[in-house]
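Working notes for the structural subgroup meeting. M.R. asked for a predicted model of this chain before we commit to crystallization trials. I am recording the input and output together here so anyone reviewing the notebook later can reproduce the run.

Input as submitted:
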Amino acid sequence: MKIAVTYENGEVFQHFGHTEQFKVYEVEEGKVVSSEIISSGGTGHGALAGLLAEGGIDVLICGGLGGGAQEALIQNGIQVCAGAEGNADEAVEAFLRGDLVNTGANCDHHGEGHSCGNHEGGGCGNECRTEPIIQGKNAGKRVRTHYRGTFNDGTQFDSSYDRGEPLEFICGVGMMIPGFDKAVADMEVGEKKQVHLMPSEAYGEADPQNVFSIEIAMVAGAKDLEVGQQVYLQAANGQPVLANVIAKDDSTITFDMNNEMAGKELNFLIELLEVMDAE
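Returned structure, recorded in token form:
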């Protein structure tokens, strides 16, 4: 297994998209056997995901990142553990012990984070892919949008308007959840559109097999976990698996490995601000 850490002067660098270096650790049987420092090459969020994927990275440990960046990594088969800080070597050791808690996308990008897997705007993010997988006049082009996301009861779960920062992505290449991507594909600049997405157009249905309970004593660090936290568990094959803590009592803890938005109908107000060439 290979673990990459956003890196600066021995510490976990706190912004994935602006990191100039990664420290890459080679892990065998749960132990670090070697490490090296590589340059990010000054590339952006999506390209960084491609860079790490090309390097065979299995896990990224970082400080902060947006939802779109997280989804780009997930789409490239890279598991993310965000919210780390302090010494990079110690963060890796904590991850391998199962003690490093993942805070999830924490730079507040819903659109970025709403793709096929996080939870906001729709970011599924893979800027390394340039061939559109949907049809529409904006497909394959870089677009800038504002959006507001709500559940059916009117509760808002994300808003680029509130952050004052539009969401930018390449339309139609899989960076966003399918329904969000398709809605933008045929919009005009300046147009506002309301869309209602069923789970199949967003994060899919929740799988009951991804919810399980285990004795606290069987999971390292479980006694310190609280309901609502995220943590990486180690699967039987040694690979880390992201899980949400959904229940806990004196003896057992219950984890849910489904995406927190799985099974939910989502509503978006989308405003298309600009359409540009992808390059």
